[in-house]
Every structure is written in C-alpha cells, then in structure tokens.
C-alpha cells in the first residue's frame, strides 16, 4: 500500500504542469474531435467521455475501439467476481474463494499451463489490462461492504503525461471474513492484495505504439474444508453459519502471481505493421497445514515425507506444499489491412518450468508456435474471422467466426495439452507422475438475433465434442478418459421492456451430456438467471434508479468438491447439491457520476422447504444479509 501511495503522489506532482500544457494544446486545436467538450466559459468539461479506454486486442487486430467509462447501473449490484459472471462459476460461497466455471470452456492456451486455476477470477492478467486515453487525471474509487464483513476495495488512477502518453496505477483488495464459524471480527477467510501499473504511448506520426503493464496478486486463503457432515459428527448442523463445525482451522493457501507484459508495433508501410510481444509470468502456489491439530482428520492418512525431517516440508506433523510455475514468451509477427481484409502471421516461443520442493528435478518445457489470422469486414454488421495456431508438433487451435445482422456462428477445433499439475505433482498428501495424451475438442456455437421495439431475443446453441478429457477423479487424483463426451446446450437470453421503465432480463440453458465420458462432466441440467427491475430517473431526473428482484436457479447435481491441499475441484458421488432458487433484492442508483448499491441476499430464506442452499459440497450459500457499495469517478 505504501508503494502504491508513493507512485500515486509522484504522478500527481509530475503530471500537473504537463496536464496544463496538454489542455491548452487541446483547446487551441480547432480540428480536435473533442473540441465540443467546452462549456460556455470555454473551460474543458471533463467526464466519462474524456477518459476512454481500450484493450490490447483491439490494437493488435487493427480495430482500435475506445470505450467510455461505465456509469451504467445494470448489474452493478453484482460486485463480486462470481456474481459478475451472473453466477456461471461455482465457488465456496464466500468472496474470493476457489472457483471453477460451471460450463465447459475451450482453453485459450493450448500449450503448457500450471493447472492451478482456482483463483484465476481474482487476478487481472497483464494481457487484459485496460489502457487509457484520458484528457485529465482520472481517479476511480469503488468500495463494497458486504454483510458479515465481506469487503472489497478498488482504487484506480490514470493520467496523461503528454497527449500521446498515458500512465495508470491501481490497487485492489479483498478482506472477507469467514461465513462459517468465525472466531472474531477479523477472522478472515480471504485476504487479497493486488496492484497493477500500465502505460501506453504512440509516436506523433502514429507509426509506433507501445503498451506495457505489470501486475501482482497475493491471494491468501484460510481454508476451512467445508462443514463436517452430521453423519460424521452428530452435533454438526449444516445451516448454523457462524456456529457451524468446520474441518480446518489451521490450514492456509497462498497464490502469488506476478506478470510483466510488453506489446509494441511499428508501421513499415501503409497497411503493414510488425509487432513484438514479451511476457514473463510467475505463479507460486503454497499450502500449509498443522497436522498436529484436528485438521489432520480432514486429509488422507498416508503421507509422503522425506526421511530427513529437518526439511520444513518433510515434517510428519506439518504439510508444507510448494509449487513454482514460471514462463517466458516472445512473439514476433506482422499484420496489416488490405482494403476490407485484415491479415496477421506470427512466430511464438514459450519456455518455462514447474518446480517443487519435492521434485528431484524441475518439470521444464519449450514450445514453438506458428499462427495467423484473417478477417473480412464488409461493415460492422457483416464480418467473418478466422484464426489458427499450431503448436509444433502436436497441438493446435483453429476458430472461425461469422457475424451477420440476424445470426452469429462460430466453430472451434483444438488439441491442447493437459496441465503441468495434472502431469506431475508431489506433495505431502498426493503424488503422481502421468503421461497423458492431448485433449481434443470440437465446439460449434450459434446465436440468432431477434430485435423488436421492446423485446430482444437471443436463442442460442452450443455443441461440444470432447475426447481424452483429463479431470480429477473421486480419489482426488488426475485421470484421463479415452471415451468421448457430447454436449448439446440450447439456451435463450431475453430482454423485455414494459411501459418504458420496467425491464425483465433472463437467460436459461439446458444441458444434455451423452457419450462414454458423460459422467465426468457435472453440469446442472437446468441453469436459469432472471431479474425484473424498475429503471428510470426520479426527482426531476437528478437521480437514476434501478429497483428490482433477481433470481437464480440450478437443478440438482453432484457438483465437484474441493480439495485445499492440491487446490483442485474433483468428482464426487455422495453429496447432491440440490435444486434451490435464490432470490436477491437490489437497489442501484446514480447521482451525477456516483453510483450506490444496496443488495439484500437470499431474500427467500426461511420460506423454502430447505433451510438454505449449497453451492459446493460442504459449503452453504449466503444467509440473508445486506450488502452496500459505492463507486466514485473524479476527473480533476
């Protein structure tokens, strides 16, 4: 935090005179696209439309799109990472806990990855940073105070050093108290501290552009292992929340991530650029448990300890697992536009390793890729795209996309490596050394776009075929199934507007999984989200308000359970996470640029046949409680 404040102060000190110079230049430029942002007293009017942001992907694809800051209210009450996906992730029922996607996703990276993905949602990867084009210093503060001391704070600051050079810093933190059996006010389940720094620059003639970012996350979790089942301890009950009996009290996990990222390009000729991307990533995953305490009852009885008990990771009464993943990447390529056609070709080299205190030698890898892309664009409504990547000699990913005014269709075919954690792992509780085949997938997705005056309908369909799927089985170790799985997932997204101010937004999916590997995918058969809300101005249009009710529902299924020692979700056949509709009431409102939320969780608690609900075996969902949040923008 001290380093964040120091950088913030330096930028303020250095940037003030430069800002004044830049503002004068903007005012004097009659051809400036933002010349109209002057009020009647010829002063610059700063706001969300003078602080625009863009992503690296749009630069690389020669489709630079600058986006205004988000001041909308829709979905603002879903401030947690899982809720922001509209609950398409399964977590451990608390802010910042381990999470996995409910629906199968085709990996973007077909090469070697760490396999420790439980906390991906809470890390802002360097290649997904927002880069800004701002005409004034811009600060955003967003503070969320969840019931039960589930708190989240985001602070961002960006400014222009020169008209063609912007910088930014951000600090993000989570402090979430245990929802199950906290012993004191600050008995935290999750403590997260993250920060990022980024800059973007382009030459005055527009031929050279640079984007660079650094991100770091330290995610600390005091693991609980879930509620002890009543069949194990007759005095243990599931829906007592603060009084629940949990498995773990002296176990903790840490996920430390650090990334350096650089993208730069140069225009050699009109319509032809060369570019280079550099990445350096590090992930350190640790798990500690005091086996001299009651925590030992949660784990398997066998232990893998060295005879040399002087080693901290080999003491018989302690688990101290550590895995270190690091990777370097360099990509060089060329790209350009030939009329309405965009083209790209590149060569990419990756090297890295997975290290462990228990390994006798590191698990290293080197990978070489060839790739490219092609896009044709008649206009913004008619587009086709094709991209492909070949991992020499036995991996690939190709994707085609067609966009039209009434239909979007995509096809993806991939052959990707199992994770390094699935291939080789050594810890106090589990060890394996596997030689799995690559996983193959074919995916077809289609969406029909039907827009009417007050109705928007999006019928959609996803079809997956997956073979050689690798997963963590009921014994909590990796396994690969040679049979295929076939998924057919029809869905519908809809938005209705009644009387101009009453909105009803919904999405629903039905999942059918067949084939020899069908049982290895635990996806709810029915998945539904819906919200109904009033949306409109009040008090002479000084306040914009959304007041409504949100409902989510998943049909019952044997959802994967979670093993803290390996930080992996695994299959289980004993605990049915039964169907249960969860209703939340919310009030979002905006005064000028300040947004405020109130959300009352689990509004229907006490009115159902069951006393509550589960999101993961052994982890009960939130009881009824009130959340508060506020977000400010400052532009001077």
UniProtKB/TrEMBL annotation:
Signal sequence coordinates: 1-20
Keywords: Signal
InterPro entries listed in its UniProt record: Porin_10
Keyword Signal part of the UniProt annotation: yes
The protein's name in its UniProt record: Putative porin
Organism, scientific name: Cyclobacterium lianum
């Amino acid at each position: 935090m001290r380093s964040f404040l120091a950088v913030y102060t330096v930028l303020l000190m250095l940037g003030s005179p430069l800002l004044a110079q830049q503002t004068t230049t903007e005012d004097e430029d009659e051809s400036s696209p933002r010349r109209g942002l002057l009020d009647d007293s010829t002063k610059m009017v700063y706001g969300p439309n003078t602080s625009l942001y863009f992503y690296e992907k749009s630069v690389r694809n020669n489709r630079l799109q600058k986006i205004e800051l988000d001041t909308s209210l829709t979905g603002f009450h879903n401030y947690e990472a899982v809720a922001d996906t509209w609950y398409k992730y399964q977590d451990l029922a608390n802010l910042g806990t381990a999470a996995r996607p409910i629906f199968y996703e085709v990996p973007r990276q077909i090469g070697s990855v760490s396999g420790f993905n439980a906390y991906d949602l809470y890390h802002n990867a360097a290649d997904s940073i927002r880069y800004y084009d701002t005409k004034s210093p811009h600060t955003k503060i967003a503070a969320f105070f969840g019931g039960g001391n589930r708190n989240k704070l985001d602070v961002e600051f960006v400014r222009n050093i020169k008209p063609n050079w912007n910088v930014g810093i951000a600090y993000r933190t989570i402090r979430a108290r245990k929802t199950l059996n906290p012993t004191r006010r600050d008995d935290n389940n999750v403590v997260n501290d993250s920060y990022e720094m980024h800059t973007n620059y382009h030459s005055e003639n527009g031929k050279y552009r640079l984007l660079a970012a650094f991100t770091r996350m330290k995610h600390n979790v005091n693991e609980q292992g879930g509620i002890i089942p009543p069949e194990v301890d007759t005095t243990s009950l599931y829906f007592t929340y603060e009084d629940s009996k949990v498995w773990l009290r002296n176990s903790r996990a840490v996920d430390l991530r650090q990334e350096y990222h650089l993208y730069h390009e140069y225009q050699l000729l009109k319509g032809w650029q060369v570019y280079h991307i550099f990445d350096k990533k590090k992930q350190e995953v640790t798990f500690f448990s005091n086996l001299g305490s009651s925590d030992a009852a949660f784990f398997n009885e066998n232990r893998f300890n060295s005879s040399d008990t002087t080693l901290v990771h080999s003491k018989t009464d302690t688990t101290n697992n550590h895995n270190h993943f690091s990777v370097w990447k360099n990509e060089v390529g060329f790209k350009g536009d030939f009329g309405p056609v965009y083209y790209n070709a590149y060569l990419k080299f990756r090297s890295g390793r997975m290290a462990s205190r228990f390994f006798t030698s590191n698990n290293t890898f080197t990978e070489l890729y060839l790739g490219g892309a092609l896009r044709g664009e008649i206009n913004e409504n008619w587009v086709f795209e094709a991209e492909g990547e070949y991992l020499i000699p036995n991996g690939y990913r190709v994707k085609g996309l067609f966009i039209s005014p009434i239909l979007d269709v995509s096809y993806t075919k991939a052959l990707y490596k199992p994770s390094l954690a699935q291939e080789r792992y050594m810890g106090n509780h589990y060890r394996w050394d596997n030689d799995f085949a690559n996983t193959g997938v074919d995916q077809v997705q289609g969406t029909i776009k039907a827009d009417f005056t007050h109705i928007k309908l999006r019928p959609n369909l996803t079809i997956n075929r997956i073979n050689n799927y690798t997963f963590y089985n009921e014994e909590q170790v990796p396994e690969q199934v040679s049979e295929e799985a076939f998924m057919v997932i029809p869905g519908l997204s809809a938005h209705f507007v009644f009387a101009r101010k009453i909105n009803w937004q919904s999405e629903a999916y039905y999942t059918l999984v067949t084939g020899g590997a069908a049982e290895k995918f635990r996806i709810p058969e029915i998945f539904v989200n819906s919200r109904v809300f009033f949306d409109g101005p009040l008090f002479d249009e000084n306040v914009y308000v959304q007041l409504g009710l949100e409902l989510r529902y998943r049909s019952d299924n044997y959802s994967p359970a979670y093993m803290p020692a390996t930080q992996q979700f695994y299959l289980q056949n004993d605990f049915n996470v039964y169907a249960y509709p969860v209703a939340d009431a919310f009030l979002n409102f905006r005064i000028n640029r300040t947004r405020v939320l109130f959300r009352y969780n689990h509004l229907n608690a006490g009115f159902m046949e069951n006393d509550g609900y589960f999101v993961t075996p052994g982890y009960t969902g939130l009881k009824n409680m009130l959340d508060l949040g506020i977000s400010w923008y400052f532009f001077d």
